[in-house]
Amino acid sequence: MNSVEETELSQIVDLPLIGSAEQYLFSVEDNRERADKLKELLAPKLKIIIKQACDQIHQVYGTDVLSDCQILTTPWHSLVAKKTRPFKIATAGLAIKGKGWYFQQRFECTSYSLFVNFFGLRGLESNPIVHVLKNHLEDVTRILKHGRYNIFSDNIAPEKYGKLKYEEFINKLQLIHEGGRNGTYIQSPSLVIPIKDLDAAQPVINNFVEIFAIFRAAANVFLGEEDRFEEYLKCLLDWQNQNPLQVQESVTTTRASVQY
C-alpha cells in the first residue's frame, strides 16, 4: 500500500462508518446520485472492515487462504450505463464465481444495520455449501449455534425457518433435488447502528472469521479440490482458545436472539 492509500484509509477510519450523509443517501430517490455517493462514501469504509477481517482470517487460516477469492463491493455501475438500479443495501465481500455458480460471504450495510451474509446458488451438480453442511453436521452445527446464525434456503418453505433446528434443516437440505439453481444462505443477526467507529464493527469481523471454515471448505469443493473442513475447523478452534474473551464478546454484546 502506498502513502496516498494509507492517508486515505487513516482519514476514513476517523469517520463514523455510517454518518448522517450515508444514512440520508439510502433514502435518495435518484438512482445514479444514490449509487455514486454510496460508492464514494461507504464502500471504502466497508473495504476497511473487509481488510481487518482478512487480517484475522490470515491469523487463523494462513496468509495464502484467500488466493482464490475476489473482494467485491456494491453499489457498482457501468460508466456508460444510462441509469443505475436502486440500491437499498451497500455491500463489500469475498466472492468466488464460476460457470453455473455464484458464491459469496459479505458484509451488508443498510440505513439501520450491519451484518454478515454468506450464500451460494445451486449449480448444475450440487451446492458446495450444502455438501459441507451435511458432511460435517455436528461441527457445522456447533459453529452455527455459537454464532446464532440464521440458515435458510429457497427450497424450504419460509414458515419453517423459525421452527426447525439446525440439524433438522440441514437434513432437509440433503433431500432436495440437486439439479435446481435455488439458493442456500447463512446469515448473521444484525449489528444495529449507529456505529461510531470501526472498532464497533469488531463483533461483525469476528463473525466473519467464525464462519470462514464453512466458506473455505465449500470453496474447496466448488473448485474441485479436497474437502478440508476439519483442518480449517481445527485452526478456528485453536484461534478461539487463544482469543476466548474476544469471541465471547462477539456473541453476547451485539446479538439479537433467533429461533434455532
Mean pLDDT: 76
Number of helices: 11
Structural class: alpha+beta
- Assign an overall shape: globular
Radius of gyration: 18 Å
Q: Gap between N and C termini, in Å?
A: 43 Å
| Sequence stretches where pLDDT stays below 50 over 5 or more residues | 1-14, 247-260
Outline of this structure?
The chain is α+β, with helices and mostly antiparallel strands and 260 residues long. The protein is built from eleven helices and seven strands. Strand 2 and strand 3 (101-109) form a beta hairpin.
Task: Kindly list the characteristics that best describe this protein.
260 residues; alpha+beta; seven-stranded antiparallel sheet; disordered C terminus
Give a description of the structure.
With 260 residues, the chain is an alpha+beta fold. The protein is built from eleven helices and seven strands. Strands 1, 2, 3, 4, 5, 6 and 7 form a seven-stranded antiparallel sheet that branches. The longest helix is centred in the first third of the chain and has 19 residues, at 43-61. The N and C termini lie far apart (43 Å). Residues 1-14 and 247-260 have low confidence and may be disordered.
